[in-house]
Amino acid sequence: MTDVLIAGSGPTGLTLACDLALRGLAVRVVEQRSAPHRASRGKGLTGPSLEVFTRLGAVEKMSATGRRGVVLRKYFDRVHVRDTPTDDGLLIGQWQVEEALRERLAALGVEVEYGAGVTAITQGPAGVTARLADGRAVSARYAAGCDGGRSAVRRLLGIPFEGHTEERDTMVLGDVAAPGLSRDFWHQWFSSDGTGLMLCPMPGTDTFQLQAAPELDGHGEPMPASLEGFQRLFDRHAALPGIRLAEAGWTASWRSGARMAARLREGRVLLAGDAAHVHPIAGGLGLNTGVQDAVALGRAVAAALSGPDGQHALDGYEAQRLTAAAELLSDTAQRMRQVMAAVREPGRGTEAGLR
């Protein structure tokens, strides 16, 4: 029987899978998507995450791909006002983190199973059975829901996702090419009206990650992300007529909010990463907190499988990571307030959200 079934192949699920496989446990990873994505999404690794990936044997590829020491270049009302070097962490696209972890996991004998989202879960005294979207049933001694903020596993368990979503506090994002724009800086254009646009050069590609306050339609509602909309926003904020954006391979709309699961454990099924908590993006802590969740869960599940104190270890995971999630939501809310105050003035920029 499989020791642990992991739903979700993002950084949290893949970190957990590598951790457990290195412990000699039998792991399966199932993923709702039909193939890996190539979106930048979460784009920075902190020191603690890099330490984890070093232990797992995946950091070499990440370090070769990523970039250290990016300079934040702030413009205010189209005027360059500040350059801020950053020395901590590694700038790298989320898809590249996942690629390195998948390669490491494959070397450990485990392949991600795509097109296999979890559609039903039943539990017994000795294990869990999950029904997958492709019709298969998979049994395991434990299961982990690492399947994101809209977690199917959390929903199937009936676990409330408590908190709030700010329907009007939105952002549009995408990966775009910007030929002619310097890749030496993370460009951040802010305006005295409180809006802005940022273009971050993504290492190992010729693209930038774009983040911006959205355009509003005639009813004052946020418009969806699109390449055409990105160009209009760029022209408005940057006023560089020679730059034409292209190749919007990934676009998304993001709504600010803070939510956490009411509990992280239902019998033999546990939650981690965005399935357990979502929060404001200031500080870039989401992906990195999911990595720490995965490490803690790997340790707890290994203890549950190997000794008489297993239930205590699982309860300890839930208590520890619920506390960490609550602190994270408070911390990121404070960072977001600091960032929003800073970008409305000519001085500091998004570095106000860094520690």
Keywords for this structure?
355 residues; alpha/beta; FAD/NAD(P)-binding domain; eight-stranded mixed β-sheet; 30% strand
Question: Any overview of this molecule?
Answer:
There is one protein chain. The chain is an alpha/beta fold. The protein has a domain at 2-44 and 94-164 and 259-337: FAD/NAD(P)-binding domain. It contains eight helices and 18 strands. It has helices spanning 11-22, 47-56, 59-65, 94-107, 152-157, 227-238, 286-306, 310-342, and strands spanning 2-7, 27-30, 44-45, 71-76, 79-85, 90-91, 112-113, 118-123, 128-132, 137-145, 161-177, 185-190, 196-201, 207-212, 246-261, 265-266, 269-271, 277-278. Strands 1, 2, 7, 8, 9, 10, 16 and 17 form an eight-stranded mixed beta sheet that branches. The protein has an eight-stranded mixed beta sheet with strand order 5-4-12-13-14-11-15-18, with helices on both faces. β13 and β14 (207-212) form a beta hairpin.
CATH class of the domain at 2-44 and 94-164 and 259-337: Alpha Beta
Major beta sheet summary: 8 strands, mixed
Helix/strand/pairing class, anyone? alpha/beta
The CATH H-level homologous superfamily of the domain at 2-44 and 94-164 and 259-337:
FAD/NAD(P)-binding domain
Please state the average pLDDT score. Answer: 91
Q: What are the low-pLDDT stretches, counting only 5+ consecutive residues below 50?
A: none
Helix content: 25-40%
Based on Cα principal axes, name the global outline: elongated
Cofactor: FAD
Domain FAD-binding: 2-329
InterPro entries: FAD-bd, FAD/NAD-bd_sf, RIFMO-like
Keywords: FAD, Flavoprotein
